[in-house]
Amino acid sequence: AQKITQTQPGMFVQEKEAVTLDCTYDTSDQSYGLFWYKQPSSGEMIFLIYQGSYDEQNATEGRYSLNFQKARKSANLVISASQLGDSAMYFCAMRAYLFLSNDYKLSFGAGTTVTVRA
Amino acid sequence: DAGVIQSPRHEVTEMGQEVTLRCKPISGHNSLFWYRQTMMRGLELLIYFNNNVPIDDSGMPEDRFSAKMPNASFSTLKIQPSEPRDSAVYFCASRELIAGGDEQFFGPGTRLTVL
Questions:
Q1: B17-41: pLDDT as tens digits
Q2: Which of A110, A75, A103 is nearest to B95 (CA)?
């Protein structure tokens, strides 16, 4: 069974500084995908970034980058130059393979709350 | 593009009442997911559909929960009878089912309170 672990329930970061959110995973699949979603206080889930297990380079999307260390089974999210609008909960998720339906579903971690201070 | 639409955004009901949550996926998307989010259990997948067909309903907590997708543009999640422990935020998400397509787009959620 796949498992996603986010060990940091909450973090504070100073505006304009970088912050790293930890995510480790456990899977026996050879091919998998890792996602990060942002959930602001308004409640919606916003897709941020995706990393495939066979991607050789770490994914980047603007100020978001994913530090993918396959051997350690970690997929940490780095937010550079934090802004007040980055205050939210962040979820790491992994694509889990469903054998019977030959399809995938997402399994989510517990989330990390980030508060950006001015 | 309107995104995934959910209604109602908030629902307060009394224990024992029937609750129906609605979702309209993004046009052209052929996979639809229902999630439940609580403080205790985080974000859980309840059920998902591909091309209107339920594929995996192993996350549906019990028989009081049922979901339908009568056509490609509409789905419902029904709880009958509702209980206080069903209080949660229910998200609907949709995805375009293509090779390598994994990104799910979430709706704004329905916050359900069962008194």
A1: 999 999 999 998 989 999 999 988 8
A2: A103
